[in-house]
Write a structure and sequence with these properties.
Blueprint: H1 2-29, H2 41-52, H3 56-88, H4 90-104, H5 108-119, H6 123-147, H7 151-159, H8 164-201, H9 207-216, H10 220-248, H11 250-261
């Protein structure tokens, strides 16, 4: 029991040590700041509750997170389905590879003006922007994960005449899941970035919209509080993702642990 507690304390110290140190450095370095654009961290912390917890949670934070959730989940479904199809069928992969490389090279923010022409400036536009950015890391990692499956396993499944649904569910998706999860982790960071950028272009609410409004109104401490809020949201979403990852890849982490011991 004591050893487990010490291990937990060591992990907590490793996880929180550097962030606490950086916040402390920021606090003391900015304590006597007279720069209008570089306010003391104490001032930013003081304005945080009244800026974000008195109405903006419902008006700005939840709409942003909702758009991020919808766009991210759509990208996950599209990326995994297309990735499995392209990864399984070599002919489709050869035909689509140049096209995929072309579209993958296009930065999603550059497509926002075009997307606005077709999807308007509502929530649909922001969701489409998030999907166009998040889908690539998921799609490409899924393709590589399917391509890397053991041919012996695929041949064995064919010999035993497993149904297609069984083969996809228990062999292809499970075998490619480490790469799919790696792509989904990258896509989450991309999604947060695009959520903010799309709201800065054309929006009437959202975290990115509020940050721009604070900057234009010279409400600098409030602007910094919005940036800190984005970082906090990113950390919380990463923690949630890590919990999901641990559950989805239980078989994989267990296998790696046994290999290291063996």
């Amino acid at each position: 029991m004591k050893r487990r507690r010490l291990e937990g304390a060591r992990k907590a110290l490793t996880f929180l040590g550097l962030p606490v140190l950086l916040v402390g450095l920021w606090w003391f370095a900015s304590a006597g700041s007279q720069n209008f654009f570089w306010p003391p961290l104490r001032t930013i912390v003081e304005v945080f509750p009244e800026t974000w917890l008195e109405g903006r949670i419902l008006a700005d934070v939840l709409p942003s997170l909702g758009r991020l959730a919808v766009g991210y989940l759509l990208a996950l479904v599209v990326g995994v389905v297309l990735g499995v199809v392209i990864g399984v069928f070599r002919t489709i992969r050869r035909v689509l590879e140049p096209v995929l490389e072309f579209f993958r090279a296009l930065p999603p923010p550059a497509l926002i003006p075009v997307i606005m022409l077709f999807a308007g400036i509502g929530d649909e536009m922001k969701v489409v922007v998030i999907v166009t950015g998040c889908v690539w890391p998921i799609l490409l990692n899924t393709i590589e994960g399917v391509r890397g499956l053991d041919d012996v396993l695929l041949d064995t499944a064919q010999v035993y005449r497993l149904r297609s649904s069984t083969r996809v569910r228990h062999l292809i998706l499970r075998g490619a899941s480490p790469r799919i999860v790696a792509g989904a982790r990258q896509a989450l960071s991309v999604g947060i970035i695009l959520m903010v950028i799309s709201e800065m272009f054309a929006a009437s609410n959202g975290i990115g919209f509020s940050i721009v409004q604070f900057q234009r109104g010279f409400a600098i401490p409030q602007m910094w509080s919005g940036i800190i809020l984005l970082g906090v949201c990113g950390v919380l979403l990463a923690l949630v993702f890590r919990l999901v990852e641990a559950r989805v890849l239980t078989w994989y982490t267990g296998m790696r642990r046994l290999q290291r011991k063996g």
